[in-house]
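Need a sequence for this fold. Nothing fancy.
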């Protein structure tokens, strides 16, 4: 059974991500943890110094969270009556990222599925701050679903790689699981900069051949493009349903997403994006 975490702020964007998760894992036995983390907006030094209980504020915010979670699960069950799926709710007075981290460890979460932006997401921003912080700090595969994305089977998966990772099960099993379920083809995209692959890179590339031996896959190599160009150009010629990258601290993933230019990334990501950590939490 898979354990899947669904953070929600009760926005349309977060519910759209929930719908995607329910459809993606429809044939698998899953426990979905629907999580709402809340901190009152006036949570500041005055709030800390004065006991909020005397105003009943904490209770009001908690009740709102509990009601929102209950309504969300009712809505899910009315639209997706799947005997493979069970739901548990978590209302937490906590910072969202800290709560996600604790829940991932405590519930042995296999995937986090979340929207790319929250209620205040501006169109020009590729990922909201919570999504970026989850990518950076949570050692669990994170599937980010763009606003208004309508589910489509992930038949074509794009997997850019610089072959700088010593691939192991924890890196590739999430891809293999999805590709096996949907009979997907994995397109492995390498961007070269005029240099031959090193021996280590060749070895890692060979590992991918072995891991994907029972999965339809193709290797692609392009040169004289940056990674954002390469992804955009590939999408123009091939209909891609899922983008997958491994968050390796020393790979192009970090250069692409964690620099100060994160909101000016040179492409508009309009497909689900699965980020796999290079290191997992110990379970």
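Here you go.
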């Amino acid at each position: 059974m898979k354990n899947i975490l669904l953070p929600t702020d009760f926005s349309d964007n977060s519910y759209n991500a929930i719908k995607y998760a329910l459809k993606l894992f429809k044939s698998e036995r899953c426990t979905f943890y629907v999580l709402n983390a809340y901190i009152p907006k006036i949570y500041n030094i005055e709030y800390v110094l004065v006991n909020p209980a005397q105003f009943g504020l904490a209770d009001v915010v908690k009740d709102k969270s509990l009601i929102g979670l209950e309504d969300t699960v009712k809505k899910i069950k009315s639209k997706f009556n799947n005997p493979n799926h069970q739901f548990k709710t978590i209302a937490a007075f906590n910072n969202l990222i800290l709560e996600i981290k604790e829940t991932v460890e405590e519930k042995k979460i296999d995937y986090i599925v979340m929207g790319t932006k929250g209620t205040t997401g501006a169109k020009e921003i590729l990922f909201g701050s919570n999504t970026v912080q989850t990518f950076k700090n949570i050692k669990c595969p994170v599937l980010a679903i763009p606003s208004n994305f309508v589910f489509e089977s992930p038949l074509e998966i794009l997997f850019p790689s610089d072959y700088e990772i010593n691939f192991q099960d924890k890196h590739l099993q999430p891809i293999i699981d999805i590709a096996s379920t949907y009979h997907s083809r994995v397109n492995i995209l390498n961007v070269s900069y005029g240099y031959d692959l090193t021996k280590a890179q060749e070895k890692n590339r060979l590992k991918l051949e072995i891991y994907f031996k029972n999965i339809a896959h193709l290797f692609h190599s392009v040169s004289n493009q940056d990674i954002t160009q390469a992804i955009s150009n590939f999408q123009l010629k091939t209909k891609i349903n899922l983008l997958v990258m491994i968050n390796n601290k020393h790979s192009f993933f970090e250069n692409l997403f964690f620099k100060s230019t994160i909101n000016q990334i040179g492409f508009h990501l309009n497909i689900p994006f699965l980020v796999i950590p290079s290191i997992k939490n110990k379970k």
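For context: Confidence is low (pLDDT under 50) at residues 260-267.
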